[in-house]
Fold:
Amino acid sequence: MKIKSKIWIETDEGILISEGRLQLLKLIEETGSLNKAAKAMNLSYQKAWRLIDDSNRASEQPLILTHVGGTKGGGTQLTSYGKSLIASFEIINKECWEFLDSQLQKHLP
Structure:
């Protein structure tokens, strides 16, 4: 048996981070591009931008920095705050699953 659950962190302004947004942020870090990250997740660029923009509004600090095109092209990179948010959420998520698994073993025969 396994307990199934999803967690996310939200503020009064909305969702800060969830599993889907975590994946999007990690792909931005990997590819250096919001557009490439969106394509990897089969999301439209507009949807991906809206998710990141909503998270930025819910955040105390920006999660990404964007660089407009030019001769070398544009790009997107995570801020140090964005990177720390990913690390913190992964720890919280892991510990949440461990707790739920322990509760399942504790309360079910």
In short: The first strand starts at residue 8 and ends at 11. The mean pLDDT is 93. The longest helix spans residues 80-107. The beta strands are 8-11, 14-18, 64-67, 75-78.
